[in-house]
Amino acid sequence: MDLTSLPLSITEWLHPTAWLQLFGTFATIGVLAIIFAETGLLFGCILPGDSLLFTAGILTAVSTVNGQAFQPLSLPWLLVGGPIAAIAGAQLGHWLGARYGRKLFDRPDSRIFKQEWVEKAEYYFNRFGPAKAVVLARFIPIVRTFLNPLAGMLGMDAKKFFVWNAIGGILWTDALFLLGHFLGSEVPDVEKYILPGVAVILVLSVIPIIREVLKGRKSDRGPNKNGPEESRPSLSGDSYR
Fold this sequence. Notes:
The chain is mainly α. Helix content is 63%, strand content 2%. The protein contains 11 helices and 2 strands; from the N terminus they run H-H-H-H-E-E-H-H-H-H-H-H-H. It has helices at residues 10-13, 16-23, 27-40, 50-58, 75-100, 115-128, 130-136, 143-153, 158-186, 194-220, 228-231; strands at residues 64-65, 68-69. Strands 1-2 form a two-stranded antiparallel ribbon. Helix 2 packs across helix 3, helix 5 runs antiparallel to helix 9 and helix 7 packs parallel to helix 9 (158-186). The longest helix is centred in the last third of the chain and has 29 residues, at 158-186. The chain is globular, with a radius of gyration of 19 Å.
């Protein structure tokens, strides 16, 4: 692989094909590694997620994007390895949160870390409850990175976390792989629609979140607005405090 031929601008590196071009013949392994890092390591929040999975699915059906040849990816390997990498990464994140607690996030803002991202993950955790938050977070960039260690830090039971982590990991990875594969097989010149397709996926993924937030705000204005402690999620049978 001639690295001088790779795109160099930041905007180009945000395109998932740049990563797949870098991995070359090891693209399938590279995709799985990024899935693991994005869901298990804090720096993974800067890595591509939905766009990479969607594009990888397309490249199981086509081998050329915008005139650039790519090594075809294996759909069976992605469908099996993707969930495993996502589940393993999230379990690592949960363990790190349980092991190191709040000090894991006790760091100044930087280009790859911002306290507001942790606050956003904690908001979803409190708003939707542990089980639903673990699943929904898979479809929300950045939140899916920080919610896993946050769940460990807040004491979510490891077995309960694993169950919902597995459900979310399978839904997230395989749905995007299969969607990309289907479009790659059925739509001519599908490479032209990669970024618009990712944008549509992101919009659709946040619609349920927006509905839940609006529903929660309405309930906060209701008769129970003075009892927030009772409405917080239960982590292990007791109210989360």
